[in-house]
Fold each of these.
Amino acid sequence: MRLADKMALVTGGGRGIGAAIAALYAREGASVVVADKDAATARATADAIVAAGGTARSFIGDVGHPDDCSRMVEACAAAFGRIDILVNNAGVAFHRLYVDTTLADWERVLRINLTGPFLIGQAAARRMIAQGAGGRIVNIGSITGQRGSTGRSAYAVSKAGIMQLTRVMAVELAVHNIAVNAVAPGPIQTDITNHGPRQTQAYLDRIPMARYGRAHEVAGAALYLASDECQFVTGETINVDGGFGAAGLIFSQDEMRSYRSGGRD
């Protein structure tokens, strides 16, 4: 019960990584508002949490609409009396070549993936400051925001912005005992993962663990960053990527052994 008596808001909590985080937080004792623009998935996730013995409410809201951003925080405070933890998970994936990306594409992705979390984080921070008991904010970035990748201009910039925003928030909010950190998932297998065979193989060739991650593995990192175990960590990004970010050249270890046995180095 690492989050006993905590009140949490998880955006994009209806499915995928968000649903895994919401469910894990509830199992660890938190009361959770599952916020999502899809009413059916938000309710289904909240209902599943309640059926498993947890406490949850659903809230219908779109991070792409500024008014909904503040309303999500207000919904958590109204449901549970306060907000202790915010997980900025909601976002949109977008893959298109740089020269084919329109201004409308660019603005939509940044509005949802960066401006929305900025506004929700601001509303949550103000509420936490007023409460006077500190808090935790966990932003969901991406390894795509750390490296150049094909077709990711708008998406990568939005996620790079989230991780830089995390650092600035952490510096400014530390005086209020609010820790702000990020999780940067690598490729995660969920029911909405839509990678073609060549993209999948390109990832697998560059991930030392040679597989896609799972939503519950991202949730585990988000749990640590929300818990009291995270006492002296702020402004950091934890990669959950199977070693993708650490890797350079990867090739057969059997081949490496054959080189050495043949006298080559």
Amino acid sequence: MGSVVEVEPVDDPGQPKRTNAGHANVAVVTLTKRIIPCIDVDIDEDGEAAVYTGVNFEDLDYTGDPVEMAKKYNAAGADEFVFLDITASAEGRETMLDTVERVADEVFIPLTVGGGIRTREDVKETLRAGADKVSINSGAIANPELIEAGAAAFGSQCIVISVDARRRFDEAGEHYVEVDGESCWFECTVKGGREGTDLDVIEWAAEAEERGAGELFVNSIDADGTKEGYDIPLTRAVCETVSTPVIASSGCGGPEDMYEVFTEAGADAGLAASIFHYDEFGIGEVKSYLDERGVPVRV
């Protein structure tokens, strides 16, 4: 794919809409479900970019080289690829754009890059480095106008709002669902899940869509790395609130979990990391499983 030479504004991004959000003006269409591998990238002891995998955003283990893993997933038939710089926001530094450029040179599928994006200029430079989309979490919560500015300058299809959600069983929320027999709401967190915000995920998802986000990337801190399945109540609640595409993330343990998040929660894409990193399942294997059960995928 290579680096982007120039980034031009998009007047009509034409972002496809979801079909199960309860919006009367949404056309009924069948959209192919996307399978998306993700790498969490940090700086190792030698100052080099490296992929790490953990549980609940902690206990990170070295997993591999980001460029080599990008090549692997591009060849394996992934629909898209996500690169997250997992400490850029917490450390207040910029995204490692040199590594993004090298990854972009190896993948010929849509590339989403997140971590440390706080300004319109950050969005521009990340797209110029070869990203097709940018994923923004902490920067958008701190400055919601960034969503509008990014969408206006580069098109809504480039702006992915990432939500690092955790369950709270108290009375501080706005929207509640039943989880394991208890009433629960979901809180947005920032800085890689290290800080709470008291911001209700459902309220924020609706606002992000209204401001021009083209996609929502929903991570569950509670399910992250557990391989016990996606957080279905969380994902379903977001999907029922918005009409923009929703990427479900965190907790995938195999094809069955992908099937569940598509059919039970209404997600538009399923993201997974460790099951692919450790070769427990292949992307083709997951797609075949879904295709055999009537889930539309690109095979």
Amino acid sequence: MPLTKRIIPCIDVDIDDDGQAAVYTGVNFEDLAYTGDPVEMARAYNRAGADEFVFLDITASAEGRETMLDTVRTVADEVFIPLTVGGGIRTRADIKETLRAGADKVSINTGALENPALIEEGARAFGNQCIVISVDARRRFDDEGEHYVEVDGESCWFECTVKGGREGTGVDVIEWASEAEDRGAGELFVNSIDADGTKEGYDIPLVAAVADTVSTPVIASSGCGGPEDIHEVFTDTGADAALAASIFHFDEYSIQETKAYLDERGVPVRL
């Protein structure tokens, strides 16, 4: 029997003008607009039948601050499904504190690229299943990459970025995904800066290239406009889970509607 595919809502959390945690939604990691209260949204998704839940502190790394753990604790009290927390995690101590705050897994991007040994340290101390390596990828159409795919008739490679997509690294996503797996990552969380917030579908070439390279579970993220896009990423790539935000945040589709759509088309999901 095939493993069920997971549907995962995600909230991008930042500090608002009053110093409070708030959920924001944007396009291409920019033009962020207030969307709601993180605790209320966590409570709603727990009731809605989500398989897991992702909480991302989207400016912690760029601002050099710690993850907002008080808010994580409150969210964890409302969520009884696996909770992944990311943003500003740079050390083994950060991983420990985030897990102690109620997270089941931590998502690490900038901290792991700056110190790849953090993956091994985290996996040894807390288990591979706790370590999710997040990749914020962008397309580059030049000759500086190592692994190329065809996109709209052009050859491109995917570059890892850091600090919420604000800085390029020159690191090839496919090379990094393979290294992260070798170092002990339990999952790979693949975000596309090019597709983020567009609702035009997942970056299929990106997700497929990563999933074809690793055996570690891959979570596809960015660009979902509806259940048909989730169906496409599950049937056209080896993704194990699909993450979506705005289609659920704004009640365009429910998680149960999405799962029913997939079930009717033969995609194994937990109903």
Amino acid sequence: MRSNKLTLKEIKASLIKEKVKELFLEANYQISLDLMNLLEENLKKETSPLGQYALEAIIENNKIALSERLPLCQDTGLGVLFLELGQNVHIVEGDLKEAINQGVREAYEEGYFRKLVVDDPLFERKNTKTNTPAIIYTDIVPGDNLKILAIPKGFGAENMSTLAMLKPSDGKDEIINFILETVKKAGANPCPPTIIGIGIGGTIDQSMIIAKKAIFRKIGQHNTNPKYASLEEEILEKINCLGIGPAGLGGNITSLAVHIDYLPTHIAGLPVAVNICCHSARYARGVI
């Protein structure tokens, strides 16, 4: 007789803690090879001498950080994690959220990274001295693995991110105008050249979440929908005509990439979120 008993994969909480620690150490010391190559490619395209100087300094900084195991930036980021938790996974010997936060704590302690989290955002603003709690998003997916995307998100760029609830009749042109105005207003604050994540659709909160996650799509990989892929290219071209340039010093390389993701939405709405990331787009991925 065939058994229908479900087989679960057990993952120890301690293993999750160690993986999270490993990922945040890795992410704070190095950017992806794809992004490094893109910076070097754009150095050749930059026409402004000051812009070239800024890009050369950025590239040199990245090389030193990797070779010396030093943080890429003095803003070592708020810990943001996107999890894909397989529905056949059973976490044992501990709690998922606590394991993740302990991994973040240990990474920031071992790496001597600045601890940047305050417990009360308005009144006391007391530093937790652990860089926790982290921000955790969890999707339940088929399978028996836990996939982790770990992001130390700096707030020079995060502070320049924004959201608009447009009317469905506004269409593509108004979306482009809103994004360009956001980038112009941000100016040098998000440490350009930037990567722009754009979330369209869903609800007000979902649009911002998918915008943030879209930033960390593989560099050079466009949206699989040809219309949105074309829109990514059009927006990037227009951003790079704004003249802001690397470090805001002027030039034709203000952004390195524009990544759009979208979700179904209500017939009455057109949420558009813009999440900005600096040239130090730090992240690391892991699977357990």
